[in-house]
Design a protein that fits this description.
205 residues, alpha/beta, Rossmann fold, 5-stranded parallel sheet, 9 helices, 53% helix, globular, binds cytidine-5'-monophosphate
Length: 205
């Protein structure tokens, strides 16, 4: 059995965490968990009228397959339920168990390196300016057929940043021992190459 090897990738919305995490997982043959999906699934159930704590405590795999999880409304709802300590506590064990599975795992989110896996073998903090992130998110939404405009998306990104960075429980911030990758001026391939090089160096240790 291979020893657990955890890669924690944190950062604000639309900085490129998802793309980098999937590429790192594929390159090194690690499992991948997008932890934002857990909060989105709870947020989606809250939008349907459920109590968010009860929703977090009874989350099932099927909740993660909801095709609406990627909408802007669900993203905002996710960042609202993510402020509630009982919601975060209900999702903790699942994330920790995933992180330590044999064969290794990449988890991306906001508090993976700081709270969920402070012992992770590699910690990355992936960031970019709010304007660059809004432009990317706008293109992504347009590709999926959602019509919106730059100012709306930028305001959404900033509201979510503010809520994620200023909450009392597990706020978004780089772990002290995280390596930061600023993707503002990097294309996708360069950002992925930077992450793979950092993870590869630690894996060889
Ligand atoms: O990463 P994504 O944009 O899908 O996350 C949606 C929201 O879920 C974030 O804005 C954040 O509030 C919350 N989240 C969190 N902790 C994580 C992952 C996501 O609080 N580890």
């Amino acid at each position: 059995m291979m020893a657990p090897f955890t890669v924690a990738i944190d950062g604000p919305a639309a900085a490129g965490k998802g793309t980098i995490s999937r590429a790192v997982a594929a390159h090194f043959g690690l499992a991948h968990l997008d932890t934002g999906l857990l909060y989105r699934a709870v947020g989606a159930r809250m939008l349907l009228g459920e109590d968010p704590i009860a929703a977090a405590q009874s989350l099932v795999a099927r909740d993660l397959e909801n095709p609406d999880l990627r909408t802007a409304d669900v993203a905002q709802a996710a960042s609202k339920v993510a402020v509630i300590p009982e919601v975060r506590a209900a999702l903790l064990d699942f994330q920790r168990a995933f992180a330590r599975r044999s064969g290794g795992a990449v988890l991306d989110g906001r508090d993976i390196g700081t709270v969920i896996c402070p012992q992770a073998e590699v910690k990355l903090f992936v960031t970019a300016s709010a304007e660059v992130r809004a432009r990317r998110r706008l293109a992504e939404l347009a590709e999926r057929g959602f019509e919106t405009d730059f100012d709306t998306v930028l305001a959404d990104v900033k509201t979510r940043d503010d809520r994620d960075m200023n909450r009392a429980d597990a706020p978004l911030k780089p772990a002290e021992d995280a390596e930061t990758i600023d993707t503002s001026e990097l294309d996708v391939d360069a950002a992925i190459a930077a992450a793979i090089s950092i993870v590869g160096a630690r894996k060889a240790d």
